[in-house]
Write a structure and sequence with these properties.
- The structure is a single chain.
- With 100 residues, the chain is an all-alpha fold.
- It is built from two helices and no strands.
- α1 packs across α2.
- It is flat and about 75 Å long.
Amino acid sequence: MEIGVTFFVVAALIIFIWIFIELKRVRHKFFAIFLIGLVLFLYFSSSFVFQKENINFKSISGITEASKLYFSWLGSAFSNLKTITVNAIKMDWQGNNTIG
């Protein structure tokens, strides 16, 4: 009887340690995927914003101008997303049950 209880406690500890390690690994995977997505978003959005602009990234004034332009674009993108969301919420999403 004592061997069974001891075996159960040891098995529970092993399972707990295994789950703890797996959760840590999943959290690190999620963080890595988040960072990769953030880098891709920054790359593609900045290439979209700066494609028609002639900005000198070698000077402080050029970097300041680029950051102002990028954050202005990012703010307007979030503002547009907010407007779209508000308009979608205000819509009547009930189905039309009339038969023509």
